[in-house]
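Annex B, item 7. Sequence and structure tokens for protein A, then protein B.
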Amino acid sequence: EPHGVLGVHPATVDGLAGVVVRAWHPEAVACTCILPGGAELALESEGGLFAAFLPGETLPFRYRLRFRFADGAMWERDDPYRFL
């Protein structure tokens, strides 16, 4: 059930409400979340699973993902898991 893990979900961390964004791409070496307005947030990686907590954000939450690969290639796209 990938939608249960990947995409954007409500979350609470240290008493702060917000959302968590998770993306899976085992070949990528980095992933950036492009936020509304163009700000960028690097997602932390653990074995191809990238994630970040965004305090104060709520659903629905629009964003794009930019993946970077070891050979220097990059690609950016809407996250299909953002659409529940």
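Protein B:
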Amino acid sequence: MSMMKNLKAKLLRIYAKTRFEIERIITIGRHMFSASQVNTELNKTYLELGQLTAEALENQEVDWTNHHAQNLVVNIQDLKKKLEVIEKEVQEAKFAPLGSFFKK
């Protein structure tokens, strides 16, 4: 009987330790999930702020003499122009006759 009590005590310790570890992992997972959600919201907020700032700079509503910021605005304008060209090419490709895709 002593062997059974010893085995039972060991099993209870293993169960308690396992339960503690599972609860700890769940708690950490919950916190990581919450942090991920907050980080996503923070990134969206930064993005929105950046877009509003870029628009204000482009429209000269804000006079910001920071050289790096001015370079970023120029880069944004260039990228927007590139997107317009790509969009135009996509639209042309959508409605182009089939034969125009093959070389003669």
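Comment on protein B: The longest helix spans residues 2-58.
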